[in-house]
Amino acid sequence: MRPGAEQHNAVGPQGRLRPRAETGAGRPDLAREPPGRRPAAFLDRDGVINVDHGYVYRQEDFAFVPGVLDAAADLARMGYALVVVTNQSGIARGYYTENDFHTLADWMRARFAEAGAPLAGVYHCPHHPDAGDGTLRRDCDCRKPAPGMLLAAARDLNLDLSRSALFGDKCDDLRAAQAAGVPLRVLLGKDGAAMPQDACPDALTSARHPSLAHALADPALRGRLLQCGVSPPPQAGAPEE
Fold this sequence. Notes:
Elements: E1 40-43, H1 68-78, E2 81-87, H2 89-92, H3 98-114, E3 119-125, H4 148-157, E4 165-168, H5 171-180, E5 184-188, E6 207-209, H6 212-216, H7 219-229
């Protein structure tokens, strides 16, 4: 964050402004959260869920990446809360409005629900540090690679970030996950068409696949997801059955 920059709210699952998210590269303190937390599968939107035509905000321009809904339903069956975390600087740039975004998000949520993959939350950042005019042109703690949206989701939805995964098509997606303490970070190809092109460091990337569907078909990655998703790890000292 730039010197003197203000901190601003991440926008939560129903479009309401959430309490200001934490900042910094450290893992959030989860020790005081109540038991029963579940892992999340965080999904970037443009390029991961839908084909990125550039600043998509209308239903007629929204095309799902092939296989993404079935793969998301697979994650839901594993026990993951599905959470979308998306930078939407088109709002700051004046290309579309918050209402436009929410109208499309509501339609998208309905399609996920119909596919057996209900979304636990849709979080977006409407800011940009350099583009646009007015109050949305600013530094914030919700625009990826900052972890604000993931941290807000963890608080709102009672998520266990230490057992969660993120699927994104940019290094900034993975950096946000790393800063939030999400251990499984999967780099996907843009629009599911080819292997990822972003040159993300290996230390940042758990796996690389063309699409979410390809990722879920990888036996090694699937095994890691199942290990975290089905049930919480046993508590220390608990008897094994």
